[in-house]
Amino acid sequence: MAVLGPALLGLGALFSWAIAGLPAFGDYRGPYGLVLNRVVVPLRHTTNVVMGTTFDVRGVDTMGEEFILYAAVIGVTLLLRDETRSRQAERRTRRLPSDAVRLLGVLMVGGGLLVGLWLMAFGYVTPGGGFQGGVLASGAILLLYVVGSHRDYRPFRDAHALDPLESLGAGGYVVVGLAALASGTAFLTNLFGLGTTGTLLSSGSIAVLNWASAIAVSCAMLLLFAEFLETYVVPLEPEDTAS
Amino acid sequence: MSYLPYAVAAWICLVGIAGVATSKNLIHLAVCLTVTQSSSYVLLLSVGYVMHGVAPIFLGTKLGTPAVDPVVQALALTDIVVSVAVIGLILALALDAHRLSGTVDPDSLADISG
Q1: Do residues A223 and A73 touch, judged by C-beta distance below 8 A?
Q2: What pTM was computed for the model?
Q3: What CATH fold (topology level) applies to the domain B4-111?
Q4: From residue A115, how far is each of A9, A127, A162, B15, B74 by CA, in Å?
Q5: Does any CB of chain A come closer than 8 Å to the CB of residue B100?
Q6: For residues A89 and A124, what is the distance between their CA atoms, to the nearest angstrom?
Q7: CA distance B5 to chain A (A)
Q8: Would you state the pLDDT for residue A140?
Q9: % of chain B beyond a pLDDT of 70
């Protein structure tokens, strides 16, 4: 405590010094944002410049980002997977929530999944994208666990199905990059036909990479949930016979 | 012209660090770390803001309209993904620590060796 206070005060003072040297809020000076907002739409035929930046201008960086998530899932799996315990968990069941909770939950599962898929599909036209949509869709599926039973959720924590799908998403991204390399241009060059701006058939590789990351992110999140559910959140109450 | 958003980012960061340093529970610590990290989202988005700019989505918006910086928004996306990965690992480690020592208080973990 005696150390923390002065340390935070010092850090705060450094922050104040740094902020004093920044241009005022809203007084944007950097050239990159201004250039991208001008050139990405005509050059890449995507109306969402953020996606154009993520999957084209900074495509290699996003590939690394996908593998960060991949590595995190591997790490969590290695730390938590314990065969004997997960078999034990399989036998335990739990009390089901009330009808009101289940009805609300089912509506939220459907709505969340729909919005998630919409964010994925239209990511390069309107606000959204594979990462955001993937997280929302997998979160909606996790709600199924909260409002349903183990049996409803079981297909979504099957590592034998999720592992290859996640690899397909992460690997697909690299394959799109290598395809550009094989055709004689730089890694991750936008190869495919650019299509009509503002429609689903636009933006070339960005659309493919968007879907690859959507699959990878959804499966990565579901795998993370599955590992935590198997090892930790397995309630001990006997199943309600009423349902 | 205002510096308030930068000050908010600095404040969130400091509060988060204070929480991490004084935490008595590993799960609480993970939440505090998320708070600390979220200061970087605020900072990134405020740095890229253009006064009266629109979102950089040009569907129904004329090209050339002042829009905010898309680079920092893409960076914030990366930031969030990294934060999810880190939180997943920290929570897994917290579970392991609890399994091995029966406590989630980081101060009691100091005795663990090997």
Answers
A1: yes
A2: 0.83
A3: Helix Hairpins (1.10.287)
A4: 44, 12, 21, 34, 21
A5: no
A6: 41
A7: 7
A8: 92
A9: 95
Cα A196 to Cα A56, A202, B19, B75: the distances in Å are 17, 5, 50, 27
- pLDDT tens sequence across A9-39: 999 999 999 998 888 888 888 888 888 888 8
> In Å, what is the CA distance from A233 to each residue of A75, A148, A170, A200, B75?
19, 14, 28, 40, 33
Facing residues of B54 across strands?
B67
CA distance A17 to A39: 36
Nearest to A28 among B21, B48, B82 (CB): B48
The span from the CA of B58 to the CA of A125, in Å, is 8
Contacts of residue A40 in chain B, CB cutoff 8 Å?
70
Residues 39-68 of B with CB under 8 A from A: 46-53, 55-59, 63-64, 67-68
Least confident of A9-23, A152-166, B1-15: A152-166
A69 alpha-carbon distance from chain centroid: 9
Phi/psi of residue A135, each to 5°?
A: -65, -40
The answer for residues whose C-beta is within 8 angstroms of residue A133's C-beta and 6 or more apart is A116, A117, A118, A119, A120, A121, A123, A214, A217, A218
Alpha-carbon distance of B51 to A27, in angstroms, equals: 6
Our CA-based measurement puts residue A99 at a distance from the nearest CA of chain B, in whole angstroms, of 31
Interatomic CA distance for residues B18 and A30, integer angstroms: 33
Q: Which of A124, A127, A116, A121 is nearest to A202 (CA)?
A: A124
β-pair partners for B57: A48
- The answer to whether residue B110 neighbours chain A at the CB level (below 8 Å) is no
Cα A200 to its chain centre, rounded Å, is 20
Question: A3: which 2 tokens?
Answer: 């150390």
What does the pLDDT look like over A60-94, one tens digit per residue?
999 999 999 999 999 988 888 765 555 555 545 55
- Domains of chain B, by residue range, sit at 4-111
Length of chain B: 114
- Asked if B69 and A32 count as a contact pair (C-beta separation under 8 A), the reply is yes
ipTM here: 0.82
